[in-house]
Structure formats: structure tokens, C-alpha cells
Specification:
Helix content is 87%, strand content 0%. The protein is mostly helical and 180 residues long. Helix 1 runs antiparallel to helix 2 and helix 6 packs antiparallel against helix 7. The radius of gyration is 17 Å and the shape is globular.
Length: 180
């Protein structure tokens, strides 16, 4: 969410919106460590093992744990914001939800990207991440003036959908090539 916060802060009237987006991002950052750790384990196991590691169970575990971790932001964002962040963040419920969904998507992308990299598909992963970043900036730039912090949250979700879609597409091609 760093790019979204920076992009929001470039608009004159939106520093407050950048702060509203930064709050859920700070809360969800530790969950990114879970996905990163799982991705590292997958990468090492896939590179050093001749056995087929079943990536689906690992991916589902990571997504499930991440979903549990962000569930307060999805189920009761107003109450969560008030209790954890204070009353001034109570109006950021929509942003909290969007960032939470983005974190869930990112957790799945990271594990699947590690699997691709273990099969020497670093360029495809890099392309997916770069395209996601560019798309993120475009979405935030277009929506922030009218939607404020929600535009930043939309940037998070839209970019993660794009990254996940590209990674899934590359993975399908890789699996089809391995089956042939």
C-alpha cells in the first residue's frame, strides 16, 4: 500500500486520505510475513526436491491463516478501527475492508509466484508484479480525486487481482508444458 499512500499524498486535498489508507496497511503488514515465509519455503522445497510438492494445500493454508488474521477488518471494520486505531479512523471501514481483501489475494499470489520462480519463471513473476504496480498507480490516480482513501483501497485490490490473474495464467501454461 506504500505506492497508494504516496500517490494519494500527491493530490493536494488528500493527505488525510493517505493517513486513512496507511492505518490498515500497518495493521496487515505482519500478515505479509506469513505469506513471504511460506513462499520462501515453497521456493526452497521446489528447487531442491525431485518430488512434486502439492502447492494447493500450502496455498490454501496460507490464504486461510491470512483470512483469519484480517477477518476483523472484513467483518467489523468500524468496531476494529475504533478499538485499535481510535475514533478518528471509524469512517475508514471501506478502506479497511479493501486492504484486507488485497492482503488475502497477495498471500495467494506470493506462494504461487514462489512456485513459478522455483521453475525458473522469474521474468513472468517480475512482469506480473510490475504490471500490478503500474495498474495500481493508474487506479489510484484516477479514483483518488473522487473517492479519496477508498481509491487507494481499490488500487490495492485491483492490482492484486491483476497480479494473481497473471500468475495463475503463467502457472497454467507451465503445467500444460510439463504435461506435454
Amino acid at each position: 500500500a506504500t505506492t497508494e499512500i504516496y500517490t494519494l499524498s500527491l493530490h493536494d486535498a488528500l493527505p488525510i486520505c493517505a493517513g486513512l489508507l496507511a492505518a490498515p496497511s500497518r495493521l496487515t503488514s505482519p500478515l505479509g510475513l506469513l505469506a513471504s515465509s511460506a513462499a520462501t519455503i515453497v521456493l526452497v522445497q521446489r528447487r531442491h526436491s525431485h518430488e512434486r510438492l502439492k502447492i494447493l494445500p500450502t496455498s490454501l493454508r496460507v490464504v486461510a491463516l491470512t483470512t483469519v488474521g484480517v477477518s476483523p477488518l472484513i467483518v467489523a471494520p468500524e468496531a476494529f478501527a475504533r478499538i485499535v486505531m481510535g475514533e478518528r479512523y471509524e469512517g475508514a471501514a471501506g478502506v479497511f475492508r479493501l486492504v484486507a481483501f488485497g492482503v488475502i489475494l497477495a498471500s495467494l499470489s506470493q506462494v504461487l509466484a514462489a512456485d513459478l520462480m522455483a521453475h525458473h519463471k522469474q521474468r513472468q513473476v517480475a512482469f506480473a508484479v510490475i504490471m500490478g504496480g503500474v495498474f495500481d498507480l493508474a487506479v489510484v490516480s484516477l479514483t483518488a480525486p473522487s473517492l479519496g482513501a477508498v481509491g487507494g483501497g481499490l488500487g490495492v485490490v485491483c492490482s492484486q487481482v491483476l497480479i494473481l490473474g497473471l500468475i495463475l495464467s503463467y502457472r497454467q501454461r507451465m503445467l500444460r508444458g510439463a504435461a506435454a
